[in-house]
Design brief:
The structure holds three protein chains of three kinds.
Chain A lengths: L1 H33 L11 H11 L10 H20 L15 H21 L4 H32 L4 H6 L6 H4 L3 H12 L23 H26 L10 H22 L5 H28 L1
Helix pairs in contact in A: 1-3, 1-9, 1-10, 2-9, 3-4, 3-9, 4-5, 5-8, 5-11, 8-9, 9-10
Chain B lengths: L1 H10 L3 E7 L4 H8 L4 E3 L8 E5 L7 H10 L5 E5 L11 E3 L5 H13 L57 E6 L11 E7 L2 E9 L8 H6 L6 H22 L3 H12 L8 H9 L2 H5 L8 H7 L2 H5 L11 H5 L12 H25 L9 E3 L2 E3 L10 H5 L5 H10 L20 H12 L1
Parallel strand pairs in B: 1-2, 1-3, 3-4, 4-5
Antiparallel strand pairs in B: 6-7, 7-8, 9-10
Chain C lengths: L4 H20 L6 H21 L3 H24 L16 H21 L13 H10 L3 H22 L2 E2 L2 E2 L32
Antiparallel strand pairs in C: 1-2
Helix pairs in contact in C: 1-2, 2-3
The chains are: A mainly alpha, B alpha/beta, C mainly alpha.
Family (chain C): Belongs to the complex I subunit 6 family.
Membrane topology (chain C): Multi-pass membrane protein
EC number (chain C): 7.1.1.-
Chain lengths: ~300, ~450, ~200
């Protein structure tokens, strides 16, 4: 019983997280190379050498940081990514944590991520990191709201707050078709929450790396790993909420989940490389004036459909 | 064993380099951006090599030491056409741009394999002000705010908010001269409220920029217009690349730099322009901020002036340009967006002029007044215009301020041409000789 | 009741965490740290609720409290840029009153815990706590919860409107003037100049 309920889920989540984060780096490197970034060595080796370099680099100090929060924040972000991935069902039986409120748990992962990202920037006691932290918080609330409305939309046809039920409810028709607004909105939130590509406002270039601008060595490695892991967790949730999770012909369920996750990751990473960073003020307007009303529309759509 | 395995792996990573952009170091950095295996990073904390590209004036050596000490161990320094700090006796100096990538990679590999020791710390590791906390948990003085344990007062709301009435505490910081988002050498004292720039006081003007030697020759004798126009387009493309990188459009920045590197009269800008418009650069990143009125625009000159609707271009005084039916392109808005539209239009115009001039073998005729890519050079060289940002940036958010800064070309024009081994205090004759050699 | 020993162990650990981090709230010297210690305390309580099989309430506690503490920290910190708590602040005030209030509340709650009789109804095995909570919230008590929600929302909007200088007819410090009824006319709905005898500085 212990094996099935504790050890197996932990091993599964760890493997998917580590391999997934590595694949994020590899796919991103391949996309960059295809788009013309000069590369030395293969995309498969680059994340490993980069990681090895960060491990040999010393973790630096700033003047009077809040040490506890500064060192803990990357680890906490990684832990949140692991928690998020733990609610993703890989097959009807292979579910790391089959909580009846797993959709709400994912919502709280998003909310707590805001806290952790803020702490990471605030505790370094430097200007650029602080600005990055504030920016994320200013936007984080809108990400959470959009994501929650979209996820309530997928919970309605399932009549459950459990991701396994959400997947099961897509047996006939995947949510990506049933609620066409849902997946695009959720992907945008995903880029925002992992501050990737166009929504990289917390760790952006105009802030010399933002919340990560003053971290080096192992803690930077953990932070970057956690960001990639959060992207993996996000793709897992997107695959189960909109792309029918384990459902699919011929192949076994877990394989389908992985393939769908990879597809979502590839789309997100490609968008990240193709689009410019959105200006913060424009991003606030986009979130509250365009995307939030669209998520209401999505919710009403889902509600009307559930009634019919 | 495990450690040596790790460091061998680390030695294979691409070389993270933090560039300190000194006087006349830009050209080498453009080349490095396109070099595989070298990664230019934005923060000294993310680098294993500090590359000082170009000279740094002695009064900024303290700032350089502070940047130097921010690199985490192990790290090395490399000085490209720059005199190493006196304390760093064993620092590596490189003057040949072709040898630079190789030297960087060797330095990184030697560091990782332990064959080269880390650069020593130059400044004592202590807070700038002594600890002055009182009481059990350092509350300091009386009352809620406590004291000033680091000799620094608490950020207090001394200023009214200038935007939406939500008054936050204002924080005053000194930025530059090596902050990678600012023009090289620009130093400023900035008061921020959240990420809103409350006040901006420029303390150091940016380093003078060196133009390609063809512009300086054009002041002395007629030069082929094709060469002049290609150099102009190259200059603008390199500035565009900087802004694109800042906007997170790495691939277009590289495309722009590559275009600049292999620029010929047959080069076409359409592809870059199309991709730039499609990805939403003009809608998402640049906005109608950083608006210059006529007076300020005239003070900056060049692209900024024409983007604000001033039809001022000294090329129209040149009879040879008249034969090419040259008329200046202008925009009307005068904001960041208009400046980039103007830059793109001018690159296209330059390419077209170069094509025409090459066909007809035209030479410039006027030498008293030439239009440099930085602005008009009539009586005197375009001077430093960094004073305008003190009025321009307050009221903008940090991101808008940085985007605006990238769209403005503020530095004075140096009296020495680009790509010359030119150092502070070195006799000017040497520089001219080197320029002769290069052309030969 | 029949549950494994590990539940007891977790309960004790989490209860300790909740109490210790709750105590740290009052010992720390920065508002941000205080809010996030409080958050840790609430999260520990949320996990205890999950242990009590109140799954929805426990998980809801996580995200409610995360957002709440974040907003709290932002309202305090944004108005007070104090990165990394560099400048320590006194976090406790009105010592006598707060000690008295703390002791009184402790006695009352302790009395409730020790003296009251808790119901001992075993839950039916097929009870779905999420569904029953939903039925309660959106069934008979719907009117109460919905009106409370709307009141809270209007309060929030009101606070934002009041704290902003930006009014319907321009910035507050410039003196907002409504437009005239006809183009170029006098401001509509404004008292005639001199009605108040020019006592603009009277309070």
């Amino acid at each position: 019983m212990i094996v099935n309920e504790l050890i197996l889920p932990v091993i599964l989540v760890t493997i998917v997280l580590v391999v997934g984060a590595y694949l994020v780096a590899v796919i991103d490197g391949m996309i960059a190379a295809a788009l013309g970034t000069p590369q030395r060595g293969g995309a498969w080796l680059a994340p490993l050498t980069q990681g090895a370099w960060l491990l040999t680099q010393q973790a630096n100090a700033t003047e009077a940081p809040d040490w506890r929060a500064w060192r803990l924040a990357p680890a906490l972000y990684l832990a949140l990514a692991a928690t998020g991935l733990a609610v993703v069902p890989f097959s009807p039986t292979l579910i790391p944590t089959d909580l009846v409120t797993s959709v709400v748990l994912w919502g709280s992962v998003e909310a707590l991520a805001t806290v952790v990202i803020f702490l990471h920037g605030w505790s370094a006691n430097t200007l650029l990191a602080l600005i990055g932290a504030y920016r994320y918080v200013a936007l984080g609330l809108s990400y959470i709201l959009i994501s929650m409305f979209v996820l309530i939309g997928v919970a309605l046809p399932a009549e459950s707050l459990q991701f396994s039920q959400v997947v099961a409810s897509q047996e006939g028709l995947w949510n990506v078709i049933r609620q066409p607004l849902g997946l695009p909105l959720f992907l945008i939130v995903g880029l925002g929450m992992t501050f990737w590509g166009p929504f990289n406002l917390a760790d952006s270039r105009d802030l010399a790396g933002g919340t990560a601008s003053t971290v080096s060595g192992p803690s930077r490695l953990v932070w970057e790993l956690a960001r990639a892991a959060m992207l993996v967790a996000f793709s897992g949730v997107a695959a189960s909420a909109f792309l029918g999770g384990w459902l699919g012909p011929w192949l076994p369920g877990p394989l389908w989940v992985m393939l769908k996750m990879l597809g979502v990751l590839a789309v997100l990473l490609l968008l990240g490389r193709l689009l410019p960073r959105v200006q913060p003020e424009r991003c606030v307007t986009l979130m509250w004036v365009v995307l939030l009303p669209l998520s209401f529309v999505d919710l009403i759509w889902a509600g009307v459909e559930a009634l019919l | 064993m495990a450690v040596s395995w790790l460091s061998r792996l680390a030695a294979q990573s691409s070389v993270p380099v933090f560039p300190v952009r000194g006087i006349q170091g830009e050209a080498a950095l453009h080349r490095l951006t396109l070099t595989p295996g070298v990664e230019l990073v934005d923060s000294p904390r993310h680098a294993s090599i500090l590359l000082v590209a170009g000279g740094v004036p002695p009064d900024q050596h303290d700032a350089l030491r502070r940047v130097h000490d921010q690199l985490p161990n192990p790290f090395a320094t490399l000085w490209y056409r720059s005199e190493p700090l006196a304390e760093l006796a064993s620092a590596t100096r490189v003057d040949d741009p072709d040898a630079l990538p190789g030297t960087l990679m060797t330095a990184h590999q030697e560091l990782m394999r332990g064959k080269r020791g880390s650069s020593p710390r130059l400044l004592p590791d202590e807070p700038p002000n002594p600890w002055e906390g009182l009481g059990d948990d350092g509350h300091g003085g009386e009352g809620m705010m406590g004291g000033v344990p680091y000799g620094r007062p608490m950020a207090m709301n001394m200023h009214d908010d200038i935007r939406d009435g939500l008054t936050l505490d204002s924080l005053t910081v000194t930025l530059g001269p090596f902050l990678p988002m600012l023009p090289p050498g620009l130093g400023a004292k900035v008061t921020l409220q959240g990420d809103l720039v409350q006040s901006w006081i420029t303390q150091h003007a940016p380093y003078p920029i060196a133009l390609e030697s063809v512009f300086l020759e054009a002041r002395e004798h007629p030069v082929p217009i094709a060469e002049l126009e290609l150099a102009r387009a190259r200059y603008h493309l390199q500035r565009l690349a900087f802004a694109l990188r800042l906007a997170g459009l790495e691939r277009l920045a590289l495309e722009s730099l590559r275009l600049a590197q292999g620029l010929s009269p047959d080069s076409r800008l359409e592809g870059l322009r199309r991709r730039l418009t499609r990805c939403g650069f003009f809608r998402l990143t640049t906005t109608g901020r950083g608006w210059l009125d006529e007076t300020l625009a005239r003070r900056v000159g060049g692209v900024a002036a024409r983007a604000a609707g001033l039809e001022e271009d000294l090329r129209s005084q040149d009879a040879a340009y008249g034969r090419l039916k040259f008329t200046p392109v202008v925009q009307s808005d005068g904001d960041t967006n208009a400046r980039w539209c103007q830059t793109l239009a001018e690159i296209e115009q330059s390419l077209q002029l170069a094509r025409q001039a090459e066909r007809e073998g035209l030479y410039s005729e006027t030498t008293e007044a030439i239009e440099t890519p930085r602005g008009p050079w009539g009586e005197q060289r375009p001077g430093d215009a960094s004073g305008v940002i003190d009025d321009l940036l307050p009221g903008l958010e940090w991101d808008e301020a940085m985007t605006t800064l990238a769209s403005l070309d503020l530095a004075a024009v140096s009296e020495w041409p680009q790509d010359v081994t030119q150092e502070l205090g070195e006799a000017p004759g040497d520089g001219a000789d080197a320029a002769e050699e290069r052309r030969a | 009741m029949d549950y494994p020993l590990i539940v007891d162990i977790f309960f004790l650990l989490l209860a300790t965490l909740a109490v210790v981090s709750g105590w740290r709230v009052f010992c720390t010297d920065s508002m941000v740290r205080a809010s996030f210690f409080l958050l840790v305390s609430f999260i520990a309580v949320g996990v205890i609720m999950i242990l009590l099989t109140a799954e929805y309430l426990g998980v809801a506690m996580f995200f409610m409290m995360a957002v709440e503490m974040m907003v709290m920290a932002i309202f305090m910190v944004m108005f007070m840029m104090n990165p990394a708590g560099l400048n320590p602040m006194m976090m406790v005030h009105q010592h006598k009153f707060s000690i008295a209030a703390g002791v009184a509340i402790f006695v009352v709650l302790g009395g409730v815990a020790l003296l009251s009789e808790f119901p001992d109804n075993p839950l039916p095995a097929d009870l779905d706590p999420v569904a029953s909570l939903g039925n309660e919230l959106l069934g008979d008590s719907m009117l109460i919860f919905e009106s409370a929600g709307i009141v809270l929302l209007t309060t929030m909007i009101g606070v934002v409107v009041l704290s902003s200088h930006r009014g319907r007819y321009g910035a507050a410090e410039e003196g907002s003037m409504p437009p005239g009824l006809e183009p170029g006319g006098d401001p509509a709905g404004m008292p005639e100049e001199g009605d108040e005898g020019g006592h603009h500085h009277c309070h």
